[in-house]
Specification:
- With 608 residues, the protein is α/β, with parallel strands linked by helices.
- Helices cover 35% and strands 24% of the residues.
- The protein is built from 18 helices and 27 strands.
- The structure holds 6-O-phosphono-alpha-D-glucopyranose.
């Protein structure tokens, strides 16, 4: 992960770089740094902590730069300290480098450089790059970078400057995203084009080891075999969307509250009510592509994987198509069998998650069609997949996913209805499903209206260090997601589990100090869930039930109940998850945890 940014042009390079990495902070925020050339010398400043800390140091240092590169880090090799913060320099302070990715063969390269007398000052893999370039430099900056890059294995996006060449930044990208923006008499380098889209929307996306020499308003690109290649600029359409916290204490709370509106956006203009079906204008496949689907493979990580898990139940139940759902990081190292008729759905809020991207590339190489569900226009997965349906959740700033998740569920449900209508589902059945979707915004609002009640329960249970989230069928992936929210923002150990599996081991952990959040909204299996909850109760476990209004049988079992509006089983994860999000938020608030940018996490995970 990590965010890298570079600027060369007539605006203030210090200001531009700091502004750039602030926009990239969602990619990591454990340390930050900036470097540039000033009168034939490299100057740099680094700080552990967020970009705001770096800003203070830069101000004190009265930095003036002719060209700048900057970085915000999510630690992989080496702790999040000032020494390990980027940019990294060679010993003579002639070359400075910022890096996103992992250089896998750095131990060997480091060993060789140490034998040549180089002293390393950090624990990072990145530091080998400036030392290598400096050792290969004989007056030709590009040549030295080419030779150094040819020795690297792994994934890397790099921005490099040299004190003798203040007129350029060299950018390199291999399996890590990097965008070059060209404006009039200025140029930008960034891990994400949105970070400079306010200044230019003419962009070049580097890949496959390409090297770009970037100057004011000008660029040259070379491929891996050192041939200069012609690469035209692409115009990105979307303007960066700005999100402000407004009246809310945290973005996470604001985003939880936005759900009634963004859920409406998820289906607006996509329902064909008269025919009881759905149409996505972005879905470029023709009818035959969709009719010939024999099997669906869903990929995702984290929250997106949970949405995929829910979709697997929906698609098999309603569209009667067999579905396999896989965690991308596991799937990519399988030797996947992709039978004819397999259709792939890749789910990623950011559209940049390295594991999902690698898995989909492998599947495309095997000839499968890939549909991406993502929230970010112009992201790598949006550009590379065969079609992309947008989540329309608006920018999600809080690191833990909330509104993107519920929009993923709704869009996957709509896609399911569409597939089912193309097969066996009749118009009335399709219409009934669409009515259930249309009721969701109001139902979610009803959950939000119970915020105070949920906050009170959360406060009372916030001192516990272990929780279970239990559910069956649709409520099982919902329980995985509920537990993940609590882990991410309150740092409490929470296990999402299929309720029926408790007796096969985990029930050993139940006692009066380990509460269970019971997700009760799957009508079909509710009786079975009640039995499992009785087993919890019999072992002195406290039960907090999230249940549809009118559910009977909970009074003797649940210590607390959060009532949510009733909907069909296939969509019940939406109101239930909103209640679980509020619960996690208020537990985290009570414990004083950092909610929008939790420790050790990042919004976009661009390393394996
Ligand atoms: C990170 C985020 C999670 C997210 C996961 C997958 O771990 O913190 O909230 O679910 O990445 O991200 P994606 O962008 O692919 O949905």
């Amino acid at each position: 992960m990590c965010g890298i940014f570079g600027y060369i042009g007539s605006q203030n390079p210090v200001k531009m770089a700091l502004q750039g990495i602030k926009r990239l902070e969602y990619r990591g925020y454990d340390s930050a740094g900036i470097a540039g050339v000033d009168a034939g010398k490299l100057r740099f400043c680094k700080e552990a902590g967020k970009v705001a800390m770096l800003e203070q140091e830069v101000e004190k240092a009265h930095m003036h730069l002719e060209v700048s590169i900057a970085h915000t880090r999510w630690a992989t090799n080496g702790a999040p300290t000032k020494e390990n913060a980027h940019p990294h320099l060679d010993s003579a302070e002639s070359v400075a480098v910022v890096h996103n990715g992992i250089i896998e063969n750095y131990p060997e390269l480091r060993e060789t450089l140490i034998k040549q007398g180089v002293t390393f000052v950090s624990e990072t893999d990145t530091e080998i790059v400036p030392h290598l370039i400096a050792s290969l430099y004989q007056g030709d900056f590009l040549e030295a970078v080419r030779k150094a890059v040819s020795m690297l294995h792994g994934a890397y996006a790099l921005a490099i400057i040299h004190r003798d060449h203040p007129d350029c930044i060299i950018a390199v990208a291999h399996e890590s995203p990097l965008a070059v923006g060209i404006g009039s008499n200025e140029a930008f380098i960034s891990s994400d084009s949105q970070a400079f889209a306010n200044y230019t929307r003419d962009v070049l996306f580097l890949s496959n080891g390409e090297i770009a020499v970037v100057k004011r308003g000008h660029y040259e690109v070379f491929d891996v075999s050192n041939q200069q290649i012609t690469r035209d600029l692409q115009r990105i359409e979307s303007k960066p969307q700005v999100s402000l916290k407004g009246e809310y204490e945290h973005y996470t709370l604001k985003e939880i509250h936005e759900q009634p509106t963004v859920l409406q956006n998820a289906f607006a203009g996509r329902l064909r009510e008269e025919y009881g079906t759905v149409q996505f204008e972005e879905l470029k496949f023709d009818v035959n592509d969709l009719l010939s689907i024999e099997r669906i493979l869903i990929l995702g990580c984290g929250t997106s994987w949970h949405a995929g898990y829910l979709a697997a139940y929906m698609i098999e139940d309603i569209a009667r198509i067999p579905v396999q759902v896989e965690i991308s990081s596991e799937f990519r190292y399988k030797n996947p069998i992709v039978p004819h008729g397999t259709f792939v759905i890749a789910i990623s809020q950011s559209g940049e998650t390295a594991d999902t991207l690698a898995a989909t590339r492998e599947l495309q190489a095997k000839g499968a069609k890939v549909l991406t569900l993502c929230n970010v226009h112009g992201s790598t997965m949006d550009r590379e997949s065969d079609a992309c349906v947008y989540l329309r959740a608006g920018p999600e700033v809080g690191v833990c996913s909330t509104k993107a998740f519920t929009n993923q569920i709704v869009i996957l449900f709509l896609f399911t209805v569409m597939l089912a209508r193309m097969r066996h589902l009749n118009r009335q059945e399709g219409q009934a499903f669409l009515q259930a979707v249309k009721a969701l915004p109001q139902q979610v609002q009803a959950v939000l209206d119970m915020e105070k009640h949920i906050a009170d329960i959360a406060k009372r249970y916030a001192h516990h260090d272990n929780f279970f989230f239990l559910g069956r069928r649709y409520m099982y992936p919902a329980s995985l997601e509920g537990a993940l929210k609590l882990k991410e923002i309150s740092y409490i150990n929470a296990n999402g589990y299929p309720a029926g599996e408790m007796k096969h081991g985990p029930i050993a952990l139940i006692n009066e100090n380990c509460p269970t959040v019971a997700l009760c909204a799957n009508k079909q299996t509710f009786g079975k869930l009640l039995n499992n909850l009785m087993e919890v109760k019999a072992r002195n476990g406290k039960v907090i039930a999230i249940a549809p209004e009118g559910t009977e049988g909970l009074s003797d079992i649940a210590d607390e109940v959060i009532w949510v509006p009733e909907t069909i089983d296939e969509l019940a994860s939406v109101p239930t998850s909103v209640a679980a999000q509020l619960f996690a938020y208020y537990v985290a608030l009570e414990r004083g945890a950092e909610i929008d940018q939790p420790r050790n996490l990042a919004k976009s995970v661009t390393v394996e």
